[in-house]
Amino acid sequence: MEILVATDVAARGIDVEEIDAVFNYDMPQDEEYYVHRIGRTARAGRAGQAFTFVVGKDFNKIKEIERYTKTKIVRQQIPSLKDVEEIRLNSLIGDVKKVLDSKEDMKRYIHIVERLHSEDYSSEEIASALLKMIIGREEESMKAEEKFSSMSSSSLSNDRDGGYRKRSGGKDGGKDGRKGRDRKDSFRGSSDSDMVRLFINIGTKAKIKVNDVVGAIAGETGIPGKSIGEVAMFDKFCFVEVPKTYSDKVIKIMNKNQIKGNKIAIQVANDR
Q1: What is the C-alpha separation between 155 and 158, in angstroms, rounded?
Q2: Cα–Cα distance for residue pair 17/64, rounded to 1 Å
């Protein structure tokens, strides 16, 4: 199974055929964005599905999208852990039945069962032990994947070498990520002469995050995401460091462009 993860910005230039399903992790800021997202599936007469995770006030946005697309979006509950386990179990039973019905030569495996039979283990006990081994390994694999995903997400947000690093402020007078320092002192620009600090006129009040800024710049300009330096988020604006060699290109392409549906202005930040 192949999985593609992309931001709204990056997804604009992606043309992948035969996508079976689109999952919207969050609600799009614009109705047109929703159409672009789900339009990645069911192309050229093919069938496809689109799923959107919705909570709280986002249900109002669903109604706006329904009016815009003139389509009814069916509401369903997220499966519980018990539901997921039942689906996995049914899938495993189905796989076992396929092997049994295939009439393949299983002599080498029957020999193992007969050997265990000779040690006074019943067929039910042997089958149960094998299923426990299979299911246990699957659960361990899933836990390992979840742990890896969590580690990757953490490094994506905080690892400077990976190109994403956050210094965020709350309301006016709040603190930034470094204990004991006011937000106004949280970002003074890079000491690296090869980097340029840019000012963007939107911030956290527009529901913009560090990854949105980096993803938009990298997706629209084509510069490597890892080359983008520190991003400082404030209520109504933010700062981002980019390599000096790319600064003119970033300003030219991103000025009057959009980040999550918000039209932005971008320029070289004042020294102060």
Answers
A1: 5
A2: 28
